[in-house]
Amino acid sequence: MRIMGLDYGDKTIGVAVSDEMLWTAQGLEVIRRQKNEEQDMNRLKQIVKEYEVTEIVVGLPKNMNGSIGPRGEICMEFAERLREILSLPVHLWDERLTTVSATRTLIEADVSRKKRKLVIDKMAAALILQNFLDSKTKR
User: Three-class SS of residue 133?
Assistant: First the structure.
């Protein structure tokens, strides 16, 4: 039983999965989005099956004032399609500043700009998922 975290973007989908104890999140991969969304969904189905995912968390990009803009609406629609196609619970999680935090961490680790581009989305997905996992342990 694992939870998958997704950072859904225009060009990529960052993917992270939890450990089986639901304590930690690990960045898994970055899916380069295809023109045909079915291909993206097929890859996500494979990951769900391979890692025995039972829930999904999708980052919800809110504006700094807490409102939801056009990008947030797109992520909400994506989350709904995931629910329908994968028949799993899908949670939306406030992702404000996760990409900023991931970028800062990579810069502090002296990762080159070119390499950061390759991993930033899966790292953002891991931060989204880790924040979600941490919120569940506080209850």
Answer: helix
Length of the chain (residues): 139
Q: Which residues does 102 contact at the CB level (< 8 Å), separation at least 6?
A: 120, 123, 124, 127
HEC-encoded secondary structure of 20-35: CCCCCEEEEEEEECCC
Q: Inter-axis angle of helices 70-86 and 37-51, to 10 degrees? A: 60
Model pTM? 0.89
CA-CA distance, 33 to 12, in Å (whole number)? 5
Rounded to whole angstroms, how far apart are CA atoms 77 and 5?
16
Q: Please check whether the domain covering 2-10+23-137 is classified as CATH 3.30.420.140.
A: yes
pLDDT in tens, 84-126: 999 999 999 988 767 777 778 888 888 888 887 778 889 999 9
Q: DSSP class of residue 1?
A: -
Amino acid at 95: E
Do the beta carbons of residue 62 and residue 68 sit within 8 Å? yes
